[in-house]
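Why Actin-like ATPase involved in cell morphogenesis? Reviewers of the renewal asked for a concrete example.
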Amino acid sequence: MHRILGIDLGTTNSVTAWLSDGVPVVLPNRHGDQATPSALGVDPHGALLVGHEALNWRTAQPGSVITEAKRLIGRRWEDELVQQALQARPHDASPVRASADGSVEIRLGEHYLSPVQVSAILLRRLKQDAEAAAGVPFGRAVITVPAYFAEPQFSAVREAGRLAGFHVARIVEEPTAAAHAFGIRPDEDGTEAYATVLVFDLGGGTFDVSLLTIGPSYFLVGQLGGDNLLGGSDFDALLDDHLREQPDGRDHSGDGDASRIRAAAERAKVELSSRDVSEVTLAPLGRQGGSWSGAVRRTDFEALLNEHLGRMRETVESVLKEGDALPEDVQRVLLVGGSTRIPAVRRTLEDLFGEETVSHAVDPMTAVAHGAAVETGLLGTLACPAETCTVEGIPVTADVCPGCATPLLGTATVDCPGCHVPAPELTAACPVCATDLSGLRAARPVSTLTECPECGRDDNPASATVCLDCDATLDAGGLKCPGCGMVNAAGLTTCSFCGGDFGTALAEQVTAQHIGLELEDGTVEVIFPGGMPYPTEWHRVDDLTVPGDRGASVRFQLWEGPHLRSAQRNEFCGGFVHDRADGPRGEVPLTLQVRLDADRTIDLKYRFGTGDWHGARLRRSMASPAIGRKAAELHDRYAHFLDDWVREVTPAERDALTEVMADLAALSKGEKVGRSLDGLLDSARDTLELCARARSAYARATIAGQGGRGLLPSPLLEQLRKAAEAVMDTRKAMDADAMRTATGRAEELWTGLDPAVRTSILTIRFAEQDSYPATLRMEVLAARDALRSAVERSDQAAQDTQLVRLGRLAEQGRDQFAEVSAPAAGSVLPSKR
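Here is what the prediction returned.
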């Protein structure tokens, strides 16, 4: 049996749990603590610090510890929420910056890492500690996220789990997991057959409210609300600011006091949950090493919280209203998250729902992890992670997908000693920092042995489902029946022996916000309204069109959020680009079908006019839509260059340009590219510009060398010939540095020519190549013949007359070229018919 680890990946603290003998059990970390602070740091020797080790290091080296990666995961730098989160970060937080792909990077030691990579490091440590505590390998995980996370955050958490070495069997919303932990059963303590339950989840960095309906083997998430930028860390910030004003009114953000004051604020917040007064001492303080002592009263703290408490109550009331429920309709209010221990928070809920309705039955700090473990016992099937695979309902006992053979267990990973980002075992070099990993091997957990209750054999592996001697059932990975005590197989919601109800089931989820398609005018066509249950059937949209311009690709971009008049104010879900080599003129009808599956993956089916149907799975991309558009535009420029000069580019140039085009095409479609995004677009522009310059310089030097006889001195003609040969030699080798040098020399010779002579030479060549309309071509060739005759007679006045004439004809040629030039193909978005 492949055991699955339940993980509460929290903003402030993270907790792991598993089903042991059918019961959720929290797994302690290596220090014996149930919770691991979600903090990472690096000491002066480059060693990784996790949890309390990292937090203790903040005072010694402010700005070196990452504590709030979850608020930034899956987000773009320009997002309004990101900028708000950055303003609310602690004064001693680790530096952040915009990355090359438009997302966010956080500094850990000497390296800037994405929030996905930071989370992968933390998940890797949680995995190691859990395996050591349980004595079994965890190749799979159920990871929880806030209910108000959008599609990009779901995808980013899944990617972090994959990097850490897990097959992520399910991403579960935290309120849903918490309800699993409480195990509400009908007829229990007066609960009706179908109970209305409100989950109030106030964690370290996020706030969620969910309205649920729970019945026998039935679990529906009916309404969601929340705030991704409200949590216990914001309460810490209020006390932090309050304490800063006490000693001397001086700004302490730039010295070593910042971490000391922040830590004191966090301790005071915790103490004020059980005391009326918290005594605070700040020492040493300031450059002179002074100290400050004082008291913070609960009443003062609650006064600071007034605005936040009001926002929380408004969110609760909004969820009730949208769910057509009144406070008296709610039979249980489940408290989740460490910040629900604050008395003022509990009083707010008790005032609204009544003291007897607010449940304290489960530790709010571990409820989500408990629920994640319960979810592992409810999973009877897995989904294949391969993007193109359509196989569904794979048994949890399978090692690989039966359709495409993709592994359904996470890969063994090693920790990079340079940047600490996990990498698959046997990786030659770290893909992040290029550190040599060839000698590293993944450690295997020491297996815990299990005693058979039937025959007494005591050396069964903890992962075994039956005894090695008597075949008696051991732990089948499912839930323990609260009635008869039988441990069931995974995937059951009622006992297979007595039929007893477990008090929970796999939840029917709903979308938190609108999900829609971006249109050409920048608005959103809503496809899945907020609150819609998923998975969904195919939803058809008929009244769309796209321009039929030749060569224009069609972009499908989906967004999640409330802003229907401005797509890009929402969360970018991802996109897909359909390339069209040709198409009819005018407006073409577009028929689109969209489906949202149980894993929040969006599938597309579409056709243009009466043509064939096409299918696609929405490609989640960490690159911003702006980056994708720039990549698409640059890809079009590459394609035009190769089409225009197909007979002139060298094989080496074609190979180099085609390789870059592949990366640009992948990036424009939201796919992963084969190299770092850092500088990719700039490098691609430079490469195309260099090839275009070199081709032009070679052509002009060659034309001048051939067409300048009699107009240019013989030594200069020889210099032009040699310059053209030098440029061609470098193009054949695609030696960028040498190409730049040779091209520069050829351009210098060309620009040094008399402008009238340059214009005449080019105009004559265009006419000889039939590049002009017939009438203009005949005039240019007549002027050419007259110029050559004047050269043979050494008649300088006649030469000047013909050079002026050719200049005037060149102007006419430029005007006619402009009239017949074709519009460049690009990419388009659908429009409403």
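The radius of gyration is 34 Å. This is the kind of structural detail the renewal will allow us to pursue systematically.
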